[in-house]
Amino acid sequence: MENRYDIAIIGSGPAGLSAAINARIRNKNIILFGYKDLSNKLVKASKINNYLGFYDITGEQLKNNFQKHIEKLNINIINERINEIYSMGDYFSLMVNEKCYEARSIIIATGIEYTKPIKGEDEFLGRGVGYCATCDAPLYRDKTVTVIGYNKEAEEEANYVSELASKLYYIPMYEENYNLRKDIVVIKDKPLEILGDNKVGKLKLKSKEIYTDGVFVLKDSISPAQLVPGLLMEEGHIKVDRSMKTNIKGCFAAGDCVGKPYQYMKAAGEGLIAALSAVTYIDINKIY
């Protein structure tokens, strides 16, 4: 299959890049999802003195070294957001809007999810709450929809949904000029709780309530437990063993998402281990 890979890596921070490099060196067909400008947190570091071999280096310089390394190995970053990942037995399906990728093994290196779920978000997931507006928009034809956007990319999805919905509210969680269709109602308010009976009925904001049939929460990333159904978490992190294995066969994790300390060197080391474990998993089980 054209879209089937040996290993899919989700995250382009130090853990994800390290995993990609080491899997590529071992001749595995990989796909790496993340941001082409690499880790946003990395460039904010003014000085880094604890990364072996790179004393007194800035985050920007370290990022540039990362970039040169992956370019030398012809590793491309796919700037697409994974919405859901399903274990299909011998492979995983990775859902990206209306597309689907397949991989024999996956490595989750998404970092820490800093945006806490809105009250009611987990409760109504799949019952009016979603994370991919373009995927589920047809379900809300001629209905009222609310999009809570955490980035500029959310505006594109809101514009698409507004063509099908009878009314669309857009709640931006950032300050910028908004490129939205004229019929979209922009509400600058803080969402507090998603309410309803068997499905979403309304959204409680700090200053008022709005009635809505569906709420799309469009973040930079979603929590690993929401991304991969059945993934075991422990104290807010993905539970792994020393080989970076999770409780799901063929699924590995590395970096900040598996626990403290939140350090670049620790993340890179775990990315290496996760890659080696994924390679071993594929080779031992002869998954080709």
TrEMBL record:
Say which domain of life the source belongs to: Bacteria
Ranges for domain FAD/NAD(P)-binding come to 5-271
Q: What is this protein called?
A: NAD(P)/FAD-dependent oxidoreductase
**Gene3D superfamilies linked:** FAD/NAD(P)-binding domain
The protein's UniProt keywords, in alphabetical order, are: Flavoprotein, Oxidoreductase
Q: Which PANTHER family match?
A: THIOREDOXIN REDUCTASE 1-RELATED-RELATED
Asked if the Swiss-Prot or TrEMBL record annotates the protein with the keyword Protein biosynthesis, the reply is no
The answer to whether keyword Flavoprotein applies is yes
Provide the species name: Clostridium rhizosphaerae
